[in-house]
Write a structure and sequence with these properties.
Order of helices and strands: EEEEEEEEEEEEEEEEEEE
CATH architecture of the largest domain: Beta Barrel
Number of strands: 19
Strand content: over 45%
CATH class of the largest domain: Mainly Beta
Structural class: mainly beta
CATH topology of the largest domain: Lipocalin
Distance between the termini: 37 Å
Shape: globular
């Protein structure tokens, strides 16, 4: 097993190195369904609104499946690998394509691209969303804040190493860097 599990509505969802996403009953462990992706499922799934969203490693696809049946609703091809967990808010799915170098925003129902943003270097974190902003870190040590509707960069903060997936609480953005520091930004 490769991805971290996600739990919703009495079901546990997780991916494996053979390219399967599994849905199991959280109480019994009984399989409900499994879906075969193009490549290994490293991305942890995100579940909301009766849908499961996840990416595959080498295939570079983000998938949207019906959470009850595992039926594919849509897929979106990127220019790189998807390792991070998608974030969903306001009818939009936000995720990165890692080696492809973009942070994407897609319509959560249709998979249509709304915008994409190219940071200085490869995205190395899962995005976090709060207050109409999307936050994420890159390999070059930048932590970014983008307008969630337009993808317009609002600010960036430089650390001395790759920036982690941010956490947000009380209007403060927290991120760790390989430089050994925890940053708290407002």
């Amino acid at each position: 097993m490769v991805s971290s599990p996600a739990i919703a509505g009495g079901t546990v969802y997780f991916g494996d190195g053979d390219g399967y996403l599994y849905a199991l009953d959280s109480k019994t462990g009984q399989g409900k369904w499994r879906y075969k992706a193009e490549d290994e499922v490293v991305s942890s799934p995100a579940i909301t609104g009766g849908m499961v969203y996840f990416g595959d490693g080498g295939g570079g696809y983000l998938y949207a499946l019906d959470s009850k049946t595992g039926q594919e609703k849509w897929r979106f091809k990127t220019e790189g690998c998807i390792y991070s967990t998608p974030a969903i808010a306001g009818g939009t799915v936000y995720f990165d394509s890692g080696e492809g170098g973009y942070l994407y925003a897609l319509d959560s129902k249709t998979g249509q691209e709304k915008w994409r943003f190219e940071p200085e270097d490869e995205v190395v974190s899962s995005p976090a969303i709060a207050g109409g902003m999307v936050y994420f870190g890159d390999e070059d040590g930048y932590l970014y804040a983008l307008d969630s509707k337009t993808g317009q960069e609002k600010w960036r903060f430089k650390t001395e190493g790759p920036a982690s997936s941010p956490a947000i609480a009380g209007g403060t953005i927290y991120a760790v860097s390989d430089d050994g520091y925890l940053y708290a930004l407002q």
